[in-house]
Specification:
The structure is a homodimer.
Chain A lengths: L2 E6 L7 H16 L3 E6 L5 H12 L6 H28 L4 E4 L1 H4 L1 E3 L8 E4 L2 H8 L3 E4 L3 E3 L5 E3 L4 H12 L4 E6 L20 E3 H9 L7 H10 L3 E5 L8 H5 L3 E4 L13 E5 L2 E10 L4 H11 L4 E6 L6 E9 L3 H16 L3 E5 L2 E7 L9 H11 L6 E5 L2 E7 L3 H11 L8
Parallel strand pairs in A: 1-2, 1-9, 2-6, 3-6, 9-11, 10-12
Antiparallel strand pairs in A: 4-5, 7-8, 11-12, 13-18, 14-16, 14-17, 15-16, 18-20, 19-20
Helix pairs in contact in A: 1-3, 2-3, 6-8, 7-8, 10-11, 12-13
Amino acid sequence: MALIVHKYGGTSMGSTERIRNVAKRVAKWSRAGHQMVVVPSAMSGETNRLLALAKELAPAKADDAYHRELDQLAATGEQASSALLAIALQAEGLASVSYAGWQVAIKTNSAYTKARIESIDDARVRADLAAGKVVIITGFQGVDGQGHVTTLGRGGSDTSAVAVAAALKAQECLIYTDVDGVYTTDPRVVPEARRLKTVSFEEMLEMASLGSKVLQIRSVEFAGKYRVPLRVLSSFTPWDIDLQEEAKSGTLISFEEDENMEQAVVSGIAFNRDEAKISLLGVPDTPGIASQILGAVAQANIEVDMIIQNVSHEGKTDFSFTVHRNDFARAIDLLKSVVAAKLGAREVIGDAKICKVSIVGIGMRSHVGVASKMFRALSEEGINIQMISTSEIKTSVVIDEKYMELAVRALHKAFDLDQPPA
Amino acid sequence: MALIVHKYGGTSMGSTERIRNVAKRVAKWSRAGHQMVVVPSAMSGETNRLLALAKELAPAKADDAYHRELDQLAATGEQASSALLAIALQAEGLASVSYAGWQVAIKTNSAYTKARIESIDDARVRADLAAGKVVIITGFQGVDGQGHVTTLGRGGSDTSAVAVAAALKAQECLIYTDVDGVYTTDPRVVPEARRLKTVSFEEMLEMASLGSKVLQIRSVEFAGKYRVPLRVLSSFTPWDIDLQEEAKSGTLISFEEDENMEQAVVSGIAFNRDEAKISLLGVPDTPGIASQILGAVAQANIEVDMIIQNVSHEGKTDFSFTVHRNDFARAIDLLKSVVAAKLGAREVIGDAKICKVSIVGIGMRSHVGVASKMFRALSEEGINIQMISTSEIKTSVVIDEKYMELAVRALHKAFDLDQPPA
């Protein structure tokens, strides 16, 4: 008997038929003797429906009063789906109660539409669990210190589930979703992609941030911070499959580097075509140059991902970085009009038709030659590398976006990811 | 400058276009210098949509845990519509904030799906009004002492609006609805029916309880208890009509028997075909007989409306009462099996094909011969009266339901209700 948190996404909650299946699955876990807490998303489409109504009434604005109302509005989606799940569980014969974020309470800061969880009061939930109830807690939302409803941003239900699991010291947090785990890469690009039985927290963090959309990155950070064992698994298996089998399915995001951990050097290939690159050529190589360039970009609220500065030549250097493609035009304008003039850069050039491909693996820490194997595999396909960036457990390259699928397939094969690890 | 409460029903909130019109109307009042509090219902159809989902998941049950979830579910409808209205008001350039019942807080007892308001904290609302904001408060809902969401039952938004107006000592509570006021009777039955400019609180209470569906009866009771001036008016007039004209439109439910009050003897004709009558014939006329009969009925949770007991004859009497038509079969069974046997009544008979027609008027207090004029008008149409019940300001008769429209038209004419009062 353990305390287990289940999280179900919008697709899993998408109809009364599906909600009933969720209830039957949760009932199975409850009847096996587990204390169950369930964090559902809104029924699929509901959040978009509500926000579309808001958009019909007013153009998006940056002010707090407007964002407060968006949160007050959007939070109703999870409150409704949670109550429906409680009703479905009661129909299965289980005692059940649903709580909105403010009822728990899940306290957040006041950053409407992208709030951060500050604390979770576990008293009420523990009392209900002790009384034999299945407790349902709305995902995606909380309440600030002044009693205003807040939401955590898209995908925030994952974060809610992990935070609840951390507060309750749950044995495991199971994220039921429409994929059956974390793969070595996107199976739509590489049909031979293989599901990973376990992945380390750090690898998952790199995968999530690099564009594998299985889990919201903040939920992974949260799980890492509080060491919550996290499992991603399919909500589309029949609800009545054997519990032991289900409990081992999907991908476990593990914090223990135990013996059973897969010992591959590279665990997966991530990719992302949401970025654009910008280069300032012939910048004077003086102290503080990077902060002058990036400070101006940050002030314009543009997020920067990869940053490259190579050794200088005759007192001049080239400085490159990548931004989200949506910010590309604005960043180029900014740099041309302000920064380049002030810094005396020779030229500002940019390219939005790029992609980033990364190899990720905790095994890279203790293996040499991994990066050069990557570069060789790309070169054998005739793919030119435009930028390189490395960290302890990943190596990323920027290449022409037209080569993205080719590069991913080549790397997947080069690192034998289609084969189970020895 | 005054503090004014507006209440808008589901039809008035039924689309973003209509919500925008509500916002423009409220903005007009705000710009005229009034402090505005708005209580909206859920968008029309939304509450039914949510409850239908619940019904798909579980059959209706009598237990508290189930009703708690129904309230948690249904309350989302008003939270969403309130946030949308706040957004629409902001788009009109007004500062605005929306609150769910728990945020105000509107405290209720724990009778889920039919909770009663116990108190309203006005501090937060007053602070917002003082800061120049339009405050929107969800209708229909509150929160109990343990932080569970409650709803007030169908039509509860009227009650919310009146309760908020009472708590804030508002100058007037305007109920915008899809009819343009209170009529002498239903215009669908009597095309000559006339809108009343004012109606007394007591008359309105009788009208509401007798089947005129303009206002929820509890909201009228609440208004009476706290002496909140209440106005029923149309939400379908153009939002930009002159404010002074709008402020005098509809029907004012007044608590002051002032000079301007219409001096008609009878103000309106109410009717209702939701009832059925039951008679116990030949009941021994001993003390406590009525309480024995009605006690058993009440224990079965069946509400009784009219009760008639005539003088006894040879130690036996006949005892009649009416119940809601939905409870008719159950009441008959109960009386046959239990009560009649125990009481030694000769026979239990019932009839569901009846209707109740009432004349209502505060002027009846000081006028004699009103009832006999009613009976004469019915007799002239050959309508047989089955039961009669009177109170200070109304006289009700039970007749065969096939005569309902005929009776209402005859009475409307007999009391000159198609003519404005002298």
